[in-house]
Amino acid sequence: KNQVEQSPQSLIILEGKNCTLQCNYTVSPFSNLRWYKQDTGRGPVSLTIMTFSENTKSNGRYTATLDADTKQSSLHITASQLSDSASYICVVREDGNNRLAFGKGNQVVVIP
Amino acid sequence: EAGVAQSPRYKIIEKRQSVAFWCNPISGHATLYWYQQILGQGPKLLIQFQNNGVVDDSQLPKDRFSAERLKGVDSTLKIQPAKLEDSAVYLCASSSWTDLSSYNEQFFGPGTRLTVL
Predict the structure, then answer these.
(1) What is the pLDDT of residue B99?
(2) Binning pLDDT at 50, 70 and 90, where does residue A96 land?
(3) Among A88, B81, B84, B115, which one has the highest count of C-beta atoms within 10 angstroms of its own C-beta?
């Protein structure tokens, strides 16, 4: 069964600090990987997408990395802000169909 | 561009009652999805429509859940009768197969939070 595992499940960080979220997956064949940000009470919003040949993708203070060989991805948040408090969900698309595998999310809380 | 609209935003019902959720996808998006997101979990696909046809409903509990997209635009998801374990957020998403540059990104609505007592 294709799975996506995220760690840590939750973390609390001080405003202005950096943090890194991890995503390991077993989806095969691989098509692409997205990181979504889900604010409380809202639907997920795509932050980045990476395909097999891409190693790094940035979106403002968010930088995602992908190692397709080890099937690992990370999302790095730089100089965190209070508005970064959210759940970050790693989503992997299986190649050849429209099926997505969702992680459970990393719950990030940024405190002043 | 307007996003995916869902209503109601919140619903509280007693077990064994019925409930229906409504979704209006982004204009022009042929593909529509319903997801169930239990607290602390990632979304789980319930059903996927391509226009008004069902593409994947393998994880839809068909004994109590039903969904339709009669004219290929709006969609409704119904639960009858509801159980305690149906308490979750129900997310609707849509995507455009014709926009290859977006890698078929799914755009999500705000969700409907269902509480079954």
Answers:
(1) 53
(2) confident
(3) A88
